[in-house]
Specification:
The chain is built from 7 helices and 7 strands, in the order αααβαβαββαβαββ. Strands 3-2-1-4-5-7-6 form a 7-stranded mixed β-sheet, with helices on both faces. Helix 4 links the parallel strand 1 and strand 2. The termini are far apart. Catalyzes the methylation of 5-hydroxyuridine (ho5U) to form 5-methoxyuridine (mo5U) at position 34 in tRNAs.
Length: 213
């Protein structure tokens, strides 16, 4: 954590007992959740946008879904998670929150999921925070569910600095993932149907606004 991030974190200490429990659980069991600076920036962007219906790819334990609906009065989230253990833990946390009626979690691999009959609505926002090497495939499959003028958000665009390293300096097990992430970034930044920005906060947040035409 940089000095700036530590300074910002000093103003945003978690006070909600359930959220604190989720953060501790994620730390103990190495569950990836958004870091404080990234989450606070993301929630700030959502408060500006004021989406009513949000689709999330990658629920993990339900942390970001709960944070999103708690920050947005009247908003609802549909979220997809493929890992059964994380899915069941997310169900537990969501049920214990006060937002269970505003979060629908679907168990399944988002890339293999048959969307017909499951996603019969359009969304104001799409949040992609799943397998980093598959971001382009997630984007291509689920962007059609985003309304014109809606926004697609992607987290972990920097992968803790790995995107800045020469290919040979990236651990072999991660090279394909990092190559795919770089290729996705270059592709979406030039996509003619979106106005795209990359914010250097947290671990990097990409914002793609879907053009109305």
């Amino acid at each position: 954590m940089t000095d700036y991030e530590s300074y910002l974190a000093s103003f945003t200490e978690t006070v909600d007992p359930l959220i604190k429990e989720m953060e501790n659980y994620a730390q103990k069991y190495y569950i990836p959740i958004m870091d404080p600076s990234g989450m606070n920036t993301f929630l700030g962007l959502l408060r500006i946008q004021q989406p009513k219906q949000i689709l999330e790819i990658g629920s993990a334990i339900g942390y970001s879904a709960i944070r999103m609906v708690s920050a947005l009065h009247g908003a609802s989230v549909v979220t997809i998670e493929r890992d059964q253990e994380r899915y069941e833990k997310a169900l537990d946390f969501i049920a214990r929150s006060e937002f269970g009626n505003r979060i629908r979690i679907i168990e399944g691999d988002a890339l293999e999921l048959e969307t017909q009959g499951i996603l019969d609505e359009s969304f104001d926002a799409l949040f992609i925070d799943a397998a980093k090497g598959q971001y382009k495939r997630f984007f291509e499959k689920y962007s059609e569910f985003v309304r014109p003028g809606g926004i697609i958000y992607c987290d972990n665009m920097f992968m803790h600095g790995a995107v800045l390293l020469p290919d040979e300096d990236v651990p072999k097990r991660n090279r394909t993932m990092i190559r795919n992430l770089k290729e996705f970034t270059a592709w979406v930044m030039k996509h003619p149907a979106y106005e795209t920005s990359l914010l250097p906060v947290g671990d990097g947040i990409l914002i793609a606004v879907k053009k109305s035409n």
